[in-house]
């Protein structure tokens, strides 16, 4: 899937990400969200957070969060269907 197909242009900060996950019935903690935004030794974050140039807050496109779960669900479903067919 192309990146543009799941980006919405609606950006959320860490609190917004937590709210979005809760709305999806996924119960994450603030620590888990912080983990996705912490850079590793190479400076790469686990999720593609970026700094808002106007205020320096970390933001993330909400479509990325939705895609993570939809993509994994589809992969699991395809695997399950393939096992059922055999």
General description of the model:
The structure is a single chain. The protein has three helices and three strands, in the order βααββα. It has 86 residues and is mostly helical. The protein has one domain. It has a three-stranded antiparallel beta sheet with strand order 1-3-2. The radius of gyration is 15 Å and the shape is elongated.
Provide a compact summary of the structure:
The protein has 86 residues and is mainly alpha-helical.
Write the layout of secondary structure elements.
Elements: E1 11-12, H1 14-23, H2 30-37, E2 50-51, E3 58-61, H3 62-85
Antiparallel strand pairs: 1-3, 2-3
Low-confidence runs of at least 5 consecutive residues:
none
The coarse overall form would be elongated
Number of strands: 3
Amino- and carboxy-terminal Cα gap: 27 Å
Strand count, sense and barrel status of the largest sheet are:
3 strands, antiparallel
Amount of beta strand: 5-15%
């Amino acid at each position: 899937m192309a990146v543009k197909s799941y980006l919405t242009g609606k950006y959320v900060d860490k609190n917004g990400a937590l709210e979005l996950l809760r709305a999806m019935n996924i119960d994450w903690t603030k620590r888990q969200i912080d983990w996705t935004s912490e850079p590793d030794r190479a400076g790469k974050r686990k999720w593609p957070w970026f700094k808002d140039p106007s205020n320096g807050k970390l933001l993330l496109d909400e479509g990325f969060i939705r895609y993570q779960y939809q993509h994994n669900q589809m992969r699991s479903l395809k695997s399950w269907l393939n096992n059922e067919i055999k």
